[in-house]
Amino acid sequence: MKVLELTSEMSDLLGKGVVLPIMEQFYTIQGEGFHTGKAAYFIRIGGCDVGCHWCDVKESWDASKHPLIKVSSVVHDATAQPSSTVVITGGEPLMFNLTHLTKSLSDRNIQVHVETSGAHSFSGQFDWVCLSPKKTAPPKNEYYSKANELKMIIHNRHDFEWANTHASKVSEDCVLYLQPEWSKRNEMMPLIVDYVMKNPRWNVSLQSHKYMNIP
User: Fold this and answer.
1) Using CA atoms, how far apart are residues 34 and 130, in angstroms rounded to an integer?
2) pTM over 0.85
3) CB–CB of 95/108 below 8 Å?
4) Which sequence spans correspond to the domains of the chain?
5) Could you write out the DSSP letters of every residue in 56-85?
6) How far is residue 152's CA from residue 179's CA, in Å, rounded to a whole number?
7) 18-211 is classed in which CATH architecture?
8) Rounded CA gap, 28 and 176, in Å?
9) Alpha-carbon distance 83 to 42, whole Å?
10) pLDDT tens digits for 124-178?
């Protein structure tokens, strides 16, 4: 990921989270995990240094390609939507300071969710934390106690053991999901189904938005 080349003033605003590199914002149906099927406004923040080879949003990686937008503008757009749920995603959104954004949304009675690998220091206040660890950049320990949902992407047979390693670190209240990596879904889904039936603490997550042909 390229480093944003900024003036000292803009760098200060970015550090405070007053502006953020926004790749896109859109209103849709949550397609994955615990909140599947619910209407939500998505805020996709540009920038990611985790580098999953199977990532389906690689255009988000380079933060310098996405405009720095004032959080006040983002919040205005989010509160104009019918749903009172906002999902902050990326990229890796917690590369940046999310305190200002999440407080501004929460102050307007918005339920704030985040989808993160946990690779960077935690910031912000959230109603729901979806932790999705990646092998290239493991989560910081602080995330395990904060996670409401653990979503593990299954790309090969070895990923089940890896998933259980992370499941052993989250709280008992954390909801566990196994989700097939999209390009391997036909191969991995029978294995996931069998695994969940034998280990019912786990649940199956699908990228249902792709089946519905929505963002």
Assistant:
1) 9
2) yes
3) no
4) 18-211
5) S-GGGS-GGGS-EEEHHHHHHHHHTSS-SE
6) 6
7) Alpha-Beta Barrel (3.20)
8) 23
9) 11
10) 999 999 999 999 899 999 999 999 999 999 999 999 999 999 999 999 999 999 9
